[in-house]
Specification:
Elements lengths: L4 E4 L14 H12 L3 E5 L18 E4 L4 E4 L2 E5 L4 H14 L3 E4 L4 E3 L1 H13 L4 H8 L2 E3 L11 E7 L3 H7 L4 E5 L8 E7 L4 H12 L6 E5 L5 H6 L2 E4 L5 H6 L2 E2 L7 H8 L6
Parallel strand pairs: 1-2, 1-12, 2-3, 7-8, 12-13, 13-14
Antiparallel strand pairs: 3-4, 4-5, 6-7, 6-9, 9-11, 10-11
Length: 274
């Protein structure tokens, strides 16, 4: 078998909603990497939200912030950050509409105090504990004008009363806007990257750098921001707990994240065979 690059979403794919990575998943990652395949995270999270929570020794690369940053080992091989003027206009709209938001950079996540307070309450509303909320929000840097920070790659917004498509029009079609893969509120939650940036762009940059062919790439995901990943990959795999529409795009549908879905997918694709 040719060496494969396996691009893996995190939430709902590598781990369940409580953040637990099963032992079968860890075993699959170890065996596949030992067999020479690249294990590459492909996530909407910024790197500050990933390591050291996930053991970096499991992975050869990372596509973070939904394609905005790509690393091979410790080396950044691609990064796309937001223009300040466009970022300011976006944050001004969030403030006007009272929509909590996070700004993601590789080394920090920024927001304002009112936004952090509202998101604390929102996490409690979906059943996360007080300790969970503090752990999640503890990653934040709370500032009066977070949009002035350099290196913002991606934004998350919550409690929006319009769809992602409507939000795209409101912000002048200057960004790529998608429904969030980690829904927190009963309204529309979404994520925003620079125009044209998706997980597929990050995958393409990683493959170009490593010389692995597109047909030897595998994408595994479960949520709304995984469509481009599934469609771009040589082989697209949807988790059994994935959104129904994603399963229709996939070449293979594995079991759920809580029922050894990653291990079963790796076994089905021959990644566990020397």
């Amino acid at each position: 078998m040719n060496k494969k690059a396996v691009f893996l979403d995190i939430d709902g794919t590598l781990c369940d909603r409580s953040g637990v990575v099963s032992e079968s998943t860890k075993k699959a990652l170890r065996i596949a990497a030992k067999n020479g395949h690249h294990m590459v995270l492909c996530t909407g999270r910024a790197k500050v939200q990933i390591f050291p929570w996930l053991d970096p020794s499991f992975f050869q690369g990372c596509v973070s912030a939904a394609g905005s940053c790509v690393t091979f080992g410790d080396k950044v091989i691609y990064e796309k950050v937001m223009e300040w003027e466009e970022l300011r206009n976006m944050v001004d709209y969030f403030r006007k509409m009272g929509m909590p938001y996070f700004l993601q950079a590789e080394d920090a996540i920024y927001t304002e105090s009112w936004s952090a307070s509202e998101m604390h309450d929102a996490f409690l509303e979906i059943g996360r504990t007080e300790d969970d909320a503090k752990d999640i929000l503890g990653k934040l840097v709370v500032l009066e004008n977070p949009e002035e920070q350099p290196g913002v790659e991606k934004a998350l917004y919550y409690r929006c009363k319009v769809t992602a498509e409507e939000m795209d029009a409101i912000l002048g079609h200057r960004f790529t806007i998608q429904d969030s893969s980690y829904k927190v509120t009963r309204f529309c939650d979404g994520e925003i990257t620079c125009r044209g940036i998706t997980k597929a762009i990050g995958m393409e940059k990683y493959l170009e750098y490593t010389g692995i062919k597109r047909e030897d790439s595998i994408g595994i995901g479960d949520g709304p921001n995984d469509f481009e990943m599934i469609d771009f990959a040589g082989t697209g795999v949807a988790m059994g707990n994935g959104v129904p529409a994603l399963k229709e795009h996939a070449d293979y549908v594995t079991d759920t994240v809580t029922n050894d879905g990653i291990y079963k997918a790796f076994d089905h694709l021959g990644l566990l065979t020397p």
